[in-house]
């Protein structure tokens, strides 16, 4: 491990060494061997760390603000979206098939790091976002304990009001796609 938390910091009263211990234990629990580098990458509700290994890049989140049950619920929700071909990155599972690791009363989750870019505001990208927004709303949640705000019947209609106020130029594109699915 050549560069471990070099030029990094940690919030919430933990020393850098304590966070490093949690990250390394978590990485082993998630089978992320061969760590080369760990970098702090920010986060408000979590301490997020980029983990570079010999094979892949990962993100480990040290959860700060949420109870374990909420994190497990989120992990299951994201997994269900992934299982329904929605473009999300699911959390990595432990050998116990759970997504959440706990060490010294600290909760962590891990996910594979994918290349990401900030999309340009184009008609195609806006259309893709609108289609994914509809797809998200249409995924069945009968078999999962998902976040209730996604289940609200009027969620899409209420969101269209927000889009109209914040993005008046793009609003017709969202509205046309929404209307096409009715």
Shape: elongated
Q: Uncertain spans, ≥5 residues at pLDDT below 50? A: none
Distance between the termini: 54 Å
Summarize the main sheet: 6 strands, mixed
In what range is the share of β-strand residues? Answer: 15-25%
| SS field, number of helical segments | 5
Secondary-structure element pattern, one letter each: EHEEEHEEHHH
Calculate Rg over CA atoms: 19 Å
Order of neighbouring strands in the sheet with most strands? 1-2-3-4-6-5
Measured as a percent range, the helix fraction is 25-40%
**Structural category:** alpha+beta
Residue-averaged pLDDT: 81
- Strand tally is 6
Task: Describe the protein.
- This protein is α+β, with helices and mostly antiparallel strands and about 180 residues long.
- About 40% of the residues lie in helices and about 20% in strands.
- The protein contains five helices and six strands; from the N terminus they run βαβββαββααα.
- It has helices at about 15-30, 70-85, 125-140, 155-165, 170-180, and strands at about 5, 35-40, 45-55, 55-65, 100-105, 105-110.
- The protein has a six-stranded mixed beta sheet with strand order 1-2-3-4-6-5, with helices on one face.
- A hairpin with a 3-residue loop joins strand 3 (about 45-55) and strand 4.
